[in-house]
Amino acid sequence: MNNFISASIIAADFWNLEKEFKELNKTKIKLIHYDIMDGHFVPNITIGSCELDSLVNKSKIGLDLHFMVENPDHIVPFFVEKYKNTTVKNITVHSEVCVNIKKLSRLVKKHGIGFGLAINPKTSINRIIENLKYIDLALVMTVEPGFAGQSLIKSCLTKISKLNSYLKKNNLDIPIQVDGGIKLDNISKLKEVGSNIIVSGTGIFNTKNYKKTVDEMDKIINEDL
Ligand code: DX5
Ligand code: ZN
Fold first, then answer.
1. Is pTM, for the whole model, over 0.90?
2. What distance in angstroms lies between residue 224's CA and the mean position of ligand 2's atoms?
3. What structural domains does the chain harbor?
4. C-alpha pair distances (Å), 207 with each of 79, 143, 200, 204
């Protein structure tokens, strides 16, 4: 499996999003991560379909939607209908609140979009393991969702390692995405436990040269151990 970096856009400079996109186009990132927060599932409200309308199809880099909302079963179908056949590549919802994972997964995949399932730091990895047949990616949060710029919670590494062993033992080719508090100085720890898609917000946007930062991150996440 090819490991890669994804940039979390809520950490970008929203005054200059066009410029930010141009800079991201120069890097090796394979996805732009888009955090949708509703003020209920998490104590913050971020961006939704208005902003997405401006960003979709503006770059060859695919968009990866991370829904931190209380009612994904209700909201996601509208987004699928609106953004099918666009640069939206994945839709990820939280296992803590998704009522019918099988039904939602079927709907998302039917429209050619990958379906991801996420767990919070305090949620058991078994929530992902018991739903593997429905998902295209597993998102293990490494901070409590809600804000960019937090520190990585180290205890989450054990869960990533457990999931990685399970996937290997069962010959399953499902990427493990990790999100929250990941920067150049700790990315090797994520690599060691078997992470495949590294989401980084402030770890990229708070640096001067995104291309250089992503090149270095990409090298670490793809090196042979
Ligand atoms: C947290 C979000 C993350 C966040 C990452 O709730 O899901 O995607 O923006 O930002 P950093 O890398 O700064 O923690
Ligand atoms: Zn996220």
1. yes
2. 27
3. 4-222 (3.20.20.70)
4. 32, 20, 11, 6
- Average pLDDT (18-34) is 98
pLDDT digits (tens, 9 = 90+) for 80-136: 999 999 999 999 999 999 999 999 999 999 999 999 999 999 999 999 999 999 999
User: pLDDT tens-digit profile of 149-160?
Assistant: 999 999 999 999
Å from CA of 179 to ligand 2 middle: 6
Contact 1, 198 (CB under 8 A): no
Which of 86, 92, 104 has the alpha carbon at shortest distance from 64? 92
Q: What span, in angstroms and rounded, lies between the C-alpha atoms of 170 and 112?
A: 25
Q: Does 11 sit in the ligand 1 pocket, CB within 6 Å?
A: yes
Q: Which of 199, 204, 214, 217 to mutate to test the pocket of ligand 1 (most atoms within 8 A of CB)?
A: 199
Centre of ligand 2 to C-alpha 86, Å, is 20
